[in-house]
Amino acid sequence: MSERSSEFWRWREYRHTQPNMDWNQAKIVTAGIDIGSVGSKAAIILDGQLYAYSVMRTGGVSEETAFKVMNWALEGTGLKTENLHQVVGTGYGRVNIPFANKTITEIACHARGAHYIYGPSVRTVLDIGGQDCKAIRCDNKGKVMSFLMNDKCAAGTGRGLEVFSDLIRIPIEEVGKVSLNVTEEPPPVSNTCVIFAKAESVALLRQGWPKEKVAAAYHLAMVDRIIDLLTKVGIEKDFVITGGVAKNIGIATRLETNLGIKPLEPELDPILAGAIGAALFANALYEKQLGLR
Amino acid sequence: MQAHYGYKDGSGDYFIIIDTDNCDGCGKCVKACPYEVLELVDNEFDIEGGSMATVTEQHRKKIKYSCAPCKPVSGERKLPCVLACETKAITHSW
Questions:
Q1: Contacts of residue B47 in chain A, CB cutoff 8 Å?
Q2: Are residues A55 and A157 in the same domain?
Q3: Chain B interface includes A143 (CB < 8 A)
Q4: CA dist A58 to A37, A68, B42, B49, Å?
Q5: pLDDT digit string (tens) for A211-265?
Q6: Over 80: is that where the pLDDT of B76 sits?
Q7: Most buried pick, A75, A182, A271, B64, via CB within 10 A?
Q8: According to the CATH classification, is domain B2-92 in 3.30.70?
Q9: Domain shared by A131 and A241, yes or no
Q10: Does residue A186 lie in a domain region?
Q11: What ipTM goes with this model?
């Protein structure tokens, strides 16, 4: 009998509205849409404060996804697209958002969003997204000072983790925790390519390694690769992680051990950093149009 | 802002670093580059806009090879893009 197929790579799609906030009272209502390679995020901001947001998978057509994720964030709030004073698009699919007034790179948006989520003490932002990994240095206003991007291969990214969790048949939201279930860290697998990393993991499984140990080897490979990036831009406290992979405890813990710096704990889902940053840029853009700044 | 374009692999670091605060978008480096590695794009890092030089998508993942012909073999030799830039916004990792 074949095992019933399950989607171990699938993560939770959701939306949220902050209670006790009323958009009718707000002077400026703006939105940020972050169409990533794997996940799409929308955030609505009232006078610079986060009001509603939604997170979903990016579909095959980014334009459709842009409408879907925006409408989902608006759902139940009574707000309509016409009520939004300004919309800024970001992420890989930013050129395909028909209703965006302006596009801004995800690098600038993540720095700005991290500044909002974690506060002004943030100096180093590590964004681990679906298909790339960026190390960003920023100042106390969330402005980018220096950045480095690695998009040469999906190893060390969220999509790589999806592939891996599917392989070892452990849900992606638990795979990080499982990887910490080892007494000693095994040597890492190859970190130059997702396919090689997966192939090596398969080999280790066939040699009889327990899933936890293989997961540890895979996570360690990702961390090695990420640290390469971080050391290039230089790490300064406070250090934070954004993007979907920030929620993976296996990565966060190993980064802390290997770097000696503890990443700050987020109060909001760090996957939203890009969308929040975009919405804040939209807010600034509208203020500029009004002549307020 | 120091924008690093390029990558690191087993054989070394390959980055072109453009200081976007110094880059005035004049486009002289674009003309100076014999291999069309550089281009002018809209500055998407801030709401202010304006144009700035960047490494083309196509070359970002292979600048080890794209930039190899201009690399100094021995001694010091200035690269065409670095020489062309009056505001000294371009540096390299090699």
A1: 102, 104, 281, 284-285, 288
A2: no
A3: yes
A4: 7, 10, 26, 28
A5: 999 999 999 999 988 888 888 888 998 999 999 999 999 999 999 999 999 999 9
A6: no
A7: A271
A8: yes
A9: yes
A10: yes
A11: 0.84
Q: How far is B24 from chain A (nearest CA, A)?
A: 17
pTM of the entire structure? 0.91
Contact between B61 and A152 using a beta-carbon 8 Å cutoff: yes
The residue ranges of DSSP E strands in A70-226, in sequence order, are 86-90, 102-103, 124-128, 133-138, 144-150
Question: Which of helix, strand or coil describes residue A227?
Answer: helix
Question: Which of A104, A147, A151 faces B4 most closely, judged by CB atoms?
Answer: A147
Average pLDDT for chain A:
91
Do A87 and A201 share a domain, yes or no?
A: no
Closest-approach residue (CA) in chain A for B60: A152
**Other beta carbons within 10 Å of A143:** 14
- Mind listing the pLDDT tens digit for each residue in A134-172? 999 999 999 999 998 876 666 778 888 998 999 999 999
In terms of domains, do A208 and A177 share one? yes
User: Domain residues for A56?
Assistant: 14-114+272-290
> What one-character DSSP code corresponds to residue A93?
T
Please report, for chain B, the start and end positions of each structural domain, with discontinuous segments joined by +: 2-92
We report the CATH number of the domain holding residue A245 as 3.30.420.40
Measured CA to CA, the distance from residue B45 to residue A135 in angstroms comes to: 15
- In A, minimum Cα distance to B47 occurs at A285
Contact criterion met (CB < 8 Å) for A152 and B7: yes
Domain identity same for A192 and A233 = yes
Say if the Cβ atoms of A108 and B44 lie within 8 Å: yes
Task: Please list every residue in chain B whose beta carbon sits closer than 8 Å to the beta carbon of residue A113.
Answer: none
Polymer length of chain B: 94
A249 in contact with B at a CB cutoff of 8 Å?
no
